[in-house]
Design a protein that fits this description.
alpha/beta; 5-stranded parallel beta sheet; 6 helices; globular; binds 1,3,4-trihydroxy-5-OXO-cyclohexanecarboxylic acid
C-alpha cells in the first residue's frame, strides 16, 4: 500500500446532519467518512479521515501529513477564511492540496468568499455537498496518477492499454 490521502475537516463539521441542514444537508460526518472510505477503496488507496474543532490540531495533522501523506483534501470550515496558520502549514507540507466545501461559499456571505486555503490548493470544489469530497478524491487520484505517484495500482486501469482492448 502507498501513502494515504488525508481528508481533514475543520470546526463544526462534527455537527453535520444536525447543523443548518438547509445549508449542509442531512448526512452526518460518519456517513461522509463511510462514503469517502468506499471511494478510496475503489480507487485503490488508503485514506486518513479526520475532524477537529481546534486550529492547532489541524496544523499538527498537516505537519504529520508532510511526511506521511500523498496528498491532502481539506475542508477547513470557518478557518478557511481566517487561518494563516493553516495556510502556512499547507505551504510547508508541499503536498497537492484540494480544497472542499459542502456549500457554495461564493453565493453566501461576503466574508466566506475569501479562502486562505485556495492560495496553496490545486483547486477548490464548493457547493456539491458530500459529493464534493468524492470529486476531490477522484481529482487527487488523477493528479497523483499523472505525476506517476499514485498511491497504489488500481484494478481496472492498470491492465488497460491503448489498442489492447478486446471487444
Ligand atoms: C464550509 C463553509 C465555511 O464557510 C463554513 O464556515 C463551514 C463549512 C462548507 O463546507 O461549506 O464550516 O467549509
Amino acid at each position: 500500500m502507498g501513502k494515504p490521502i488525508y481528508v481533514l475537516n475543520g470546526p463544526n463539521l462534527n455537527l453535520l446532519g444536525a447543523r443548518e441542514p438547509e445549508v449542509y444537508g442531512r448526512e452526518t460526518l460518519d456517513d461522509l467518512r463511510a462514503r469517502c472510505e468506499r471511494k478510496a477503496a475503489a480507487l485503490g488507496f488508503p485514506l486518513e479521515f479526520r475532524q477537529s474543532n481546534h486550529e492547532g490540531e489541524l496544523v499538527a495533522w498537516i505537519q504529520e501529513a508532510r511526511t506521511k501523506a500523498a496528498g491532502l483534501i481539506v475542508n477547513a470550515g470557518a478557518y478557511t477564511h481566517s487561518s494563516i496558520a493553516i495556510l502556512d502549514a499547507l505551504a510547508a507540507a508541499d503536498l497537492p492540496v484540494i480544497e472542499v466545501h459542502l456549500s457554495n461559499i461564493h453565493r453566501r456571505e461576503e466574508f466566506r468568499r475569501h479562502s486562505y486555503v485556495s492560495g496553496v490548493a490545486l483547486g477548490q470544489i464548493s457547493g456539491f455537498g458530500p459529493t464534493g469530497y468524492l470529486l476531490a478524491l477522484r481529482g487527487m487520484y488523477e493528479h497523483l496518477s499523472s505525476r506517476g505517484s499514485k498511491p497504489s495500482v488500481p484494478r481496472a486501469r492498470s491492465t488497460r492499454r491503448a489498442g489492447s482492448r478486446k471487444h
